């Protein structure tokens, strides 16, 4: 391993980390603006032009708030909870392919931190680890509401992970690989997986809403029943970490959805663009397209949040176990049969 | 029990149909409604920069009026203070000196006149009680401030600008 490789990866990691933090930061602003415009309001517009400095003001507020650790809480786990939540949210970006290799200064640099051959499984592993942050925080608070919320989050994530995994299996039957990079490369031009797997995508998307604890599946932080949910006892930047982790999760699952189903950095007419822009700028343009898709998904997350009321807990479980899992299994069977027929003839 | 007004409606709770159980048509409809609001004009008025137009009988900050010669109308009779249900008004009367003839209309005038804007409920009873037409609530909204003492408005803030300055 030469040092140039280490430096190159280090720069890539730093850039991706920075970008995902900035996007998460501005997601909080975008969420408030989207909410406001969907409700015929203006939203934050005081800090800077159009309120674009609002995330900074919020950050400063979070840091300045008094930090309270309840005396009856488990101190170590209470502090570990938000840290774990943020960590698990951030490491998901490592296997996402952000673009095809770029030629910079005579060197071809892949725009992916690591192309492991089980990328999809890695994403699933990281996402299911994320619930530990919520679980530990809720338990360590020594508050019945927090614990209830943590249990809700855990059971919700487990239920929806099954349907999510099953919906992915149908995709893997088609692509024959677990590497995200290869899955994206197979969708060259217009051959996006969503066109072949619309039902699979729908199931996957509903499950990502549940996995990120977003409305209409935001039962773990359901104020009317649970005060603040698992972060009831949290204050200051530890609360900020939990809220931030939610937005980073949203960013990562948007990226995964865009990469798995919506072609990632592929777009129609990319071959002629590659000739026109050259080996340096064409991949970067593809990356910009990818980020456009991610932003569209983030907007979709917010749009759904301000439209659909929260599900009741029994409805949530019914939808997961009796609706999505049978659908996902049916999707696998249909996909398998169709692939078998195509291969036969 | 039999309904007397005939307005009672008994709602049946039917089990959801297949389309309703799918949620998706209803969700799509709802999403359509919310996205249509994205393109509607927002109802917000950016207050400090833009002000809403008041109705003609809006009661805002008080002003102490002058007569056509620019003399203060108030004679410190105290009827406004007496009529005030919130006891927001206090004043100290003084006798006019001969050289102050151009400043005050009558021989008695208010040396200090204070309204506590935190107590005032903007009911307009002072306006009605005044026999000299000296006080009107025709000003703007009373602005916010940081200290309680700054909400006690004296004559410097209440009395109308002199005639020359107005022109």
Commentary on this structure:
The complex is a heterodimer of chains A (345) and B (167). Chain A has 345 residues and is mainly alpha-helical. Chain A has one domain. Chain A contains 12 helices and 2 strands, in the order αααββααααααααα. In chain A, strand 1 (99-104) and strand 2 form a beta hairpin. In chain A, helix 3 packs parallel to helix 10. Chain A is globular, with a radius of gyration of 21 Å. The termini of chain A are far apart. The mean pLDDT of chain A is 85. Chain B is of the alpha+beta class and 167 residues long. Helices cover 22% and strands 13% of the residues of chain B. Chain B is elongated, with a radius of gyration of 28 Å. Chain B starts with 17 loop residues before the first helix and ends with a helix. The mean pLDDT of chain B is 86. The A-B interface holds A 36-42, 45, 303-304, 306-308, 319 and B 23, 27, 30-31, 33-35, 37-38, 40-44, 46.
